[in-house]
Amino acid sequence: MKTTKELTESKTSLISQQQVTWQGRDEWFFNREYTDRYEDYYEGPYKEAERDQKSVLEQLIKADERVEDILEFGCGTTRFTRWWPDIGLESTGGDISPFMLSQALYRFDGDLVMADSHHLPFKDQSYDAVGFITTFEYYKDPVQVLQEAARVAKYGIIMGMMNRNTPKIIRRRAQQAVGKNQYYNTATFYTPRTLRKIIDKALQGRKYTLKWHCTGLPKWFPIKKWDVPVGDFFGMYIQFTDR
User: Fold this and answer.
1) Rg of the chain's alpha carbons, rounded to an integer?
2) Residue 10 belongs to some domain of the structure
3) Which residues have C-beta within 8 Å of that of residue 191, sequence separation ≥ 6?
4) Where does residue 223 fall: left (phi above 0), alpha (psi -120 to 50 degrees), or beta otherwise?
5) Is residue 8 included in any domain, yes or no?
6) 216 in a structural domain
7) Are 105 and 112 in contact (CB under 8 A)?
8) Residue 92, pLDDT score
9) Which pLDDT does position 136 carry in this prediction?
10) Which CATH number do you get for residue 122?
11) What distances in angstroms separate CA 216 from CA 124, 180, 211, 234, one per listed residue?
12) Which of 12, 65, 218, 236 is geometrically suited to a Cys-Cys bond with 212, CB 3.0 to 4.6 A?
């Protein structure tokens, strides 16, 4: 029989605070120890990198003048979801993690949905674009996720990715090995080339173009973004040309 505390928790929480798994794996975004610190990370050492990432994403998506609204899945605390309106796009956020969404509710004025990106609860062509910003790395079936996004998006898919082609990959894995960075335990790091292979497989029969830019280069480097597949982060836009 459940205790009073357990009954109260089950009635007032979307999920038990003891749950830390998704897709059969331990995931940081189901662990309060990590989700509660997520915004602090962006406000601290990652703030300058975030600015450069947003610059890349804006350049890519604003080049498609058809896009006026965006559905961002894996939105987390809505760090990027609440930024899209700053560049003129209406935004909606979605995430599988109730811990992330519990923060998003207090940070974002727009619509939010809790769902799995593998099964988007939206009709075909519901949004001009669908976005995945540093979340695609955690999907168990990336092909299915892209197919769902292509179904829901009218004009394109914008992706912000942690790049495998970075000098920091060694540091990332070393931190992970000694238990100092749990954010990357289940992450799959892509390059523009390997991501394109996934896209081509997922979107067979569709007509589209791809554009990408990298950023996250050393502070001393004179260029902040370029079309060479090296850097901590790259943005990629899949623009549908058959609609």
Assistant:
1) 18
2) no
3) 163, 164, 165, 229, 234
4) beta
5) no
6) yes
7) yes
8) 98
9) 96
10) 3.40.50.150
11) 35, 21, 17, 8
12) 236
Structure tokens at 102: 């519990």
For residue 52, what are the CA distances in angstroms to 47, 91, 140, 234? 9, 20, 28, 10
Per this entry, what is the length of the chain? Answer: 243
Confidence at residue 183, expressed as pLDDT on a 0 to 100 scale: 66
DSSP 190: B
Q: How many domains does the chain fold into? A: 1
Q: Show the tokens assigned to 55.
A: 């610059």
Rounded distance between C-alpha atoms, residue 168 and residue 194, angstroms: 18
H helices of the chain, in order, are 4-12, 32-35, 38-43, 47-62, 98-107, 142-152, 169-177, 192-202
Tokens 């406000």 belong to residue: 43
DSSP result, 152-215: HEEEEEEEEEEBSSSTTHHHHHHHHHTTS-GGGTT---B-HHHHHHHHHHHTTT--EEEEEEEE
Residue 159 contacts residue 124 (beta carbons within 8 Å) = no
Structure tokens at 50: 């975030």
Which of the 8 DSSP states describes residue 138? G
Please, what is the end-to-end C-alpha distance for the chain in angstroms?
56
The confidence score (pLDDT) of residue 4 equals 30
Mean pLDDT by 10 residues, the chain (243 residues): 36 49 63 76 78 96 98 95 98 92 91 95 98 94 98 98 81 61 77 97 97 89 88 96 90
Return the structure tokens found at 15.
């999920």
| Domain residue limits at 95 | 18-240
pLDDT at 137: 93
Residue 13 lies in a domain: no
Q: Which amino acid is at 96?
A: I
